[in-house]
Specification:
Length: 134
């Protein structure tokens, strides 16, 4: 008997668990060969097309925000309800995929702001001498 539920193992296969739980399952996999067999059975069932509604929901990531929605969230232009949902989905549910997308968008935003700042300083410096002469 494995210490993990079928739902936890399915989430493990979808890489949808918190890092600590993923690590615990991987550690147990090394010491309990029957857990590997159970994971193989779950994969076999999935490959045979036998899916539960919850599994389809998780695999298709139907509760995840689109990248465009995450960008709008980052810009603060979503309705309060939608922003609250995204915050809940990332902070409370702990969706690693949405969290990674949001982190990527934040990095792009910071990089773009830095680039704009550097370009603005460069233009100012190149035109400062010209403006003094006039």
């Amino acid at each position: 008997m494995t210490p993990f539920t079928t739902a936890e193992l399915e989430a493990y296969l979808d890489e949808a668990l918190p890092v600590e739980q993923m690590t615990a399952i991987e550690r147990t996999l090394r010491s309990q060969p029957e857990l590997g067999k159970k994971l193989a059975q779950i994969n076999g069932r999935r490959d045979a097309g036998m899916h539960s509604l919850g599994e389809v929901w998780r695999r298709q990531r139907l509760s995840c925000a689109t990248r465009q929605q995450l960008g709008s969230y980052l810009l603060g232009v979503l309705s309060d309800e939608h922003a609250d949902y995204i915050r809940f989905h990332i902070d409370t549910v702990g969706c690693r995929i949405c969290g990674a997308n949001l982190a990527d968008l934040q990095a792009q935003q910071a990089e773009a702001a830095d680039h704009v700042d550097r370009r603005r300083r460069k233009y100012f410096q190149s035109s400062a001498g010209f403006l003094r002469k006039c």
